Amino acid sequence: MTKPTGRRKFLGLAAAAATTLIAAPAMAALPRLSPQRALGFHNLHTGESLNLVYWADGLYLPDATQRIEYLLRDFRNNKVHPIDPKLLDLLTALRRTLNTDAPFEVISGYRSPETNAMLHEASEGVATHSLHMQGQAIDLRVRDRSLADIHRAALDLRGGGVGYYPRSDFVHVDVGRVRRW
């Protein structure tokens, strides 16, 4: 695992803080989140799992968010990218709405531009400027909830875009503008 150091780490933390401040009004539509926020993930491609508190006492925890970013990396080339804190908060609200402690099974988190271009060439269902490349989208499922329930819950939250892919067995969730497909 390559850890960002010096200037890169500072810039990453500054970007996360700025995103958090800008995101506050957008998150107002989501249910009130608890004072401590935790998420669980299982990356289906790498076999890695993680269950941790990423936000406590009013702050995102840098070590926790770095561990999430690593788990959600582009598994094809191991590139790690900052994950938008709004996405983590949306996933927390989704987990609560679904009333589950089961981890999110990750099909795709961050995608590098190279991976996205390759997937776009292979499928018209992959956007040229996918929010996966910004760390603002995830394709997922939850072991103890139906895909239809996940889809409905994500739509009800109105936290961003929601794509429904029953043939591929996942739901896409992002923190872009509210839309559905």
Concise overview:
A hairpin with a 4-residue loop joins strand 6 and strand 7 (170-174). The model is unreliable at 18-29 (pLDDT under 50). 37% of the residues lie in helices and 23% in strands.
Description:
This protein is 37% helix and 23% strand. It is an alpha+beta fold and 181 residues long. The chain has one domain: Muramoyl-pentapeptide Carboxypeptidase, domain 2 (2-Layer Sandwich), CATH 3.30.1380.10. A hairpin with a 5-residue loop joins strand 1 (36-43) and strand 2. The model is unreliable at 18-29 (pLDDT under 50).
Main attributes of the structure:
23% strand; 37% helix; 5 helices; single chain; Muramoyl-pentapeptide Carboxypeptidase, domain 2; eight-stranded mixed β-sheet; alpha+beta; 181 residues
Topology of helices and strands:
Layout: H1 6-27, E1 36-43, E2 49-56, E3 59-60, H2 62-71, H3 85-98, E4 104-108, H4 113-122, E5 137-142, H5 147-157, E6 161-165, E7 170-174, E8 179-180
Parallel strand pairs: 1-4, 6-8
Antiparallel strand pairs: 1-2, 2-3, 4-5, 5-7, 6-7
Helix pairs in contact: 1-3, 3-5
